Automatic annotation (TrEMBL):
It comes from Deinococcus aluminii. GO terms for molecular function: ATP binding. The keyword Kinase does not apply. The lineage of its organism: Bacteria, Thermotogati, Deinococcota, Deinococci, Deinococcales. Pfam families: ABC_tran, BCA_ABC_TP_C. This is Arginine transport ATP-binding protein ArtM. Residues 18-252 form the ABC transporter domain. The keyword Disulfide bond does not apply. Keywords: ATP-binding, Nucleotide-binding, Transport.
């Protein structure tokens, strides 16, 4: 018998890793995030850009579970996690690096990453966690600093540690908040390569970034926020040619160096 194989279209095969539906967050009189809807597909690198105060970090806080939304829903890997804690989302496969890095300052660099490895998936033994931490220090260029106390690191090294700690939890989706800020161009290129290698290992990445060349080089798709709302979505070329996006950046400090 000849098997007739059914080939579903490429579109229907795309797995959705993150789906935000009408997410809003109110702080008193301010709607910091307003009715934000977007979809991220498996393997995709998605950038969230927008002028200062646009609501990007607040959105990330809604995704990672730091805040509960005032309204809206969030699905992670097909599951509604709207009411779930940061820890539960982490166990479910969501990793996150913060804009303001906060390692345990008195612990060594290696210990900090080991904690991440223990925290992420249940059932990881301490030797496994320690070994994974060493691997990640190699990948993030921190191996030579493994035994330093975290407070001895430079800004660049701090950012790498933050990414290593997030990766240690073995996420399927990694959220990064301005991990390239303050880096020199050569350092930013290294960070770009690191994010690419993370994508290459099968992780979907959602990142917030002000440095436009980095967004251009990395993002498969860009979501643009202004005053809490999504004002555009598309490729880097599409969004940077969008008059509403150009207007949102007019007169801002960072500008839109497209
Ligand atoms: N915890 C909070 N309480 C009250 N207002 C807040 C809080 N967090 C953020 N905001 C306000 O919400 C708005 C969006 O802030 P958010 O930090 O999300 O912006 P952002 O896009 O990340 O900006 P930046 O590019 O400067 O990091 C701002 O007006 C900010 O002052
Ligand atoms: Mg921010």
């Amino acid at each position: 018998m000849t098997a007739v194989s059914f080939q579903p279209s490429a579109v229907s095969q795309k797995e959705v890793v993150l789906r935000a539906e009408g997410l809003s967050k109110r702080f008193g009189g301010l709607l910091a995030v307003q009715n934000v809807t977007f979809t991220q597909y498996a393997g995709e690198i998605l950038a969230v850009i927008g002028p200062n105060g646009a609501g990007k970090t607040t959105l990330l806080n809604l995704l990672s579970g730091v805040y509960r939304p005032t309204s809206g829903r969030l699905h992670l890997l097909g599951r509604d996690v709207t009411g779930e804690s940061m820890e539960a989302r982490c166990h479910a496969g969501l990793g996150r690096a913060f804009q303001i890095v906060r390692p345990f300052p008195e612990m060594t660099v290696h210990e900090n990453v080991t904690v991440g490895a223990l925290f992420g998936k249940s059932g990881v033994t301490l030797p496994e966690a320690r070994e994974r931490a060493y691997d990640l220090l190699e990948r993030t260029g921190l191996a030579a600093h493994a035994d330093k106390a975290a407070h001895e690191l430079t800004l660049l090294q701090d950012k790498r540690l933050e990414v290593a700690r997030a990766l240690a939890t073995q996420p399927r989706v990694l959220l990064l908040d301005e991990v390239m800020a303050g880096l020199r161009p050569a350092e930013a290129q290294e960070a770009v390569a690191l994010v690419r290698s993370v994508q290459g290992s099968g992780v979907s990445v959602l990142f917030i970034e002000h440095i436009m060349p980095v967004v251009r080089d990395l993002a498969d798709r860009v979501v643009v926020m202004d005053q809490g709302q999504v004002i555009a979505e598309g490729t880097y070329r599409e969004v940077t040619a969008n008059p509403q996006v150009v207007a949102a950046y007019l007169g801002t400090e960072e500008g839109l160096q497209a």
